[in-house]
Structure formats: C-alpha cells, structure tokens
Amino acid sequence: MESEGVVELIPQILNPKKILVPVDFSPMSKKAFDYALRFAERFCCEIVLLHVIEPIEAIAGTPLAVDIFAQPKEDLTAAKAQLASLATSSRHRRTSFKSVVRTGHAPNEITKAARELNVDLIVIAAHGYTSWRHLCIGSTAERIVRTAPCPVLALREKEHEFC
C-alpha cells in the first residue's frame, strides 16, 4: 500500500478534536508536544497541555497534621508560566491551546483529566526506564496506556521521526 493511501485512511480511523499532552518539562515531553503539534495541524484540533505537580512525599516522623497535598503557590505559578511559554513558542501555527495544572499522583490525574476534558487522544513521553529502575519507579506512560479512556500515543526515547 502506498503511503498516500495510508494517510488517506487516518481521518477515517482517528479524527481527534482535542489532544492531551502531559508535560513534565523534560526533553522527551517536549518531543511529545512536537508530535501533538503535528497531529493538531493535520486535524485542526485543540491541544491541552497538562502538568501534574506530585505531592511531597510523607516523611517518616512527620506529624500527620501536615497536608502533603498543599503546594506552594510559587510551584503552581511557575508551572503555569512554563506551560504558557511552551504554548507561545508554537503560536505561529494555527492551533489553539489550553493549559491545565493539577496536583496529585500523575497517572491518576492524567487519566481523570482525559475523562473530564473529553479528549480524543493522549500523546505522552515514555522515558524508557528498564530493569530495576522501571520496577522501582514504574512507568507513568504504561499506567496511562492501561487506564486511559481514549487512544494513547506513547513516544519512546528512540522514536521514529516522521517526515
């Protein structure tokens, strides 16, 4: 099958109107944003940039009265500014953006945001941890693939470049 034929099949299979891009500001998540931009240009859809601030881990001996979900306003403000900067760096393209900052466990918050915002596709970076590191840290992208209410495009570190 010719590549043109494949491209013509894409709109029939996938026609996203809203794409969720979880961003942790790593180079890989910025690469995921670039992929989402390509989809957005092709399908004329909106991109929702999401950053999740993970709560501070409870430390043994810390009084239980401490609210581990409370985050300094500076963290929220800085995250919002970084998302705005990322969006404005790509404003030359005809794509609309929305930025969301949430606090909580990243896989849970990403899945909840996908449901609440009614997104059609999630484009997420997989950081490529293997062996013991994957076992200890786990994979946010893997959890999203398992629990997402929509298709997920997970980008690996050694990804294929589209022309």
| End-to-end gap | 18 Å
Low-confidence stretches: 131-137
How do the SSEs run, as a string of H and E? HEHEHEHEHHE
Strand order of the largest sheet: 3-2-1-4-5
Beta strand %: 15-25%
Number of strands: 5
Mean pLDDT across residues = 77
- As a whole number of angstroms, the C-alpha radius of gyration is 17 Å
The percentage helix is 40-55%
Which overall shape is indicated by the principal axes computed on the Cα atoms?
globular
- Derived from helix and strand composition plus strand pairing, the structural class reads alpha/beta
Sheet with the most strands, sense and barrel status: 5 strands, parallel
Work out the helix count: 6
Could you list some keywords that capture this structure?
163 residues; 43% helix
Describe the structure.
It is globular and about 40 Å long. With 163 residues, it is an alpha/beta fold. Helix 2 links the parallel strand 1 and strand 2. The longest helix has 17 residues. About 4% of the residues have low confidence. It has a five-stranded parallel beta sheet with strand order 3-2-1-4-5, sandwiched between helices. The chain has six helices and five strands.
Write the layout of secondary structure elements.
Layout: H1 3-13, E1 18-22, H2 27-43, E2 46-53, H3 73-88, E3 97-103, H4 106-116, E4 121-125, H5 131-137, H6 140-147, E5 152-155
Parallel strand pairs: 1-2, 1-4, 2-3, 4-5
